[in-house]
Amino acid sequence: MDLNNIQRIYFIGIGGIGMSAIARFFNEKGVHVSGYDRTETPLTRQLAEEGMQIHYSDDVNLLDKDAQLVVYTPAIPGTHEELIWYRKNEYEVVKRSDVLQEITKELFAITVGGTHGKTTISTLTAHILRHSGYGCNAFLGGISANYDRNFWSSDKQVAVIEADEYDRSFLKLHPDIAVLTAMDADHLDIYGTEADMQDAFIQYTANIKPNGTLIAKLGLPRAAELKGDNKRWYHLKDAKANIYATNIRTVDGAYLFDVVEQDWHIHDVQLPIGGTHNIENAVAAITVAHLLGIDAAKIKAAIADFKGIKRRFEYLVKNDYQVYIDDYAHHPEELRALISSARGLFPDKRCTVIFQPHLYSRTRDLADGFAESLSLADEVLLLPIYPARELPIEGVHSEILAEKITVPVQVIQKEDVLAWIKSNSAPLLITAGAGDIDQFRDPIREILNGEKVKE
């Protein structure tokens, strides 16, 4: 695969957050980029405005027959007609991870892996490097609110990459600095068991280049098996870690804290985004920046300017009467952090969570964890399971979560969500999930703000 000589490239699933970052990489280099996705979204409209040709029906008459390289996401089923056609006609067809491996082969690679926290840490790390003038190429799994993008380029031969564990994609990367945030069970449709998934994370650390560094959260399971010639342990506030936060407080809706290492510290770091878990994410990003030699004052300035990531503890309404937060959380531990952080920030407000489960297999495998986390709210509304790449599994539906949740709960259809919002009070409202629940963001915001809802 010689990426330097490609003039035409085609993406099957171009609207995916990881796929779109790579599509933007090629588009900025003047390559002809086109592709397919199942539905039009704000992101695909953005890509089209940037000059990419996108269609939304699986039709071999619409694909690019002159493409020199075809890239697909593992979320695309093997029955996809365009994918079958390209393979049958012996085009070079590769996964997104194969392309990312080639792109980063010659770069100093900073990868962020783990079952949660990786989008925030990778985006904040890339933001610090960009804001400070250090520079980097960024391939992110979320849309940075500072730049409204999930990709940016730089002449600096450094890349910050979100390392996706789904389909073992992250094992194709060979980082100079690897961050590891968590090893909780997930994607058991791929890995089978939690132990097998942990094996993959250990292999991720084994891929660190000679003399490279592992920055891992203190307290991970099987920590003694993690690899890396140099290891740094971070934590929210455990002083046994190499680097941690202390003197944590809230001022005017922002967090203030100090970051302490044995021979180095920063006072009064200001983080403008919510969620105490994001303090820990910031500590990880600061560890990377410090390792690269970025000045403490520049690190502080960058974090104070960080506007967060779309759909990561994102405030859509915030006033004395109403708070509405939207989040991508789709794993029990992510929901636990989201709900507990929101309740900590707004302890006097009744908390209502509208959650859309993502994948039948994940709902089945982690049902008890989902129920326990969602029960931290005062009230829960469950949407039907978003299938993504999966076919239905007999006996698996949102009702199995409802039966386990210990607070008032109901399962509602998507078409009933806005009517419920109009007729019920929800002083602290959270929408969460990785499916298409984000389609309700603007209508809900408009209802809560008393605006006319756009049709």
TrEMBL record:
One of its GO terms (cellular component) is cytoplasm. Its EC number is 6.3.2.8. It comes from the Bacteria. The keyword Iron does not apply. It is found in: Cytoplasm. HAMAP family: MurC. NCBIfam families: murC. This is UDP-N-acetylmuramate--L-alanine ligase.
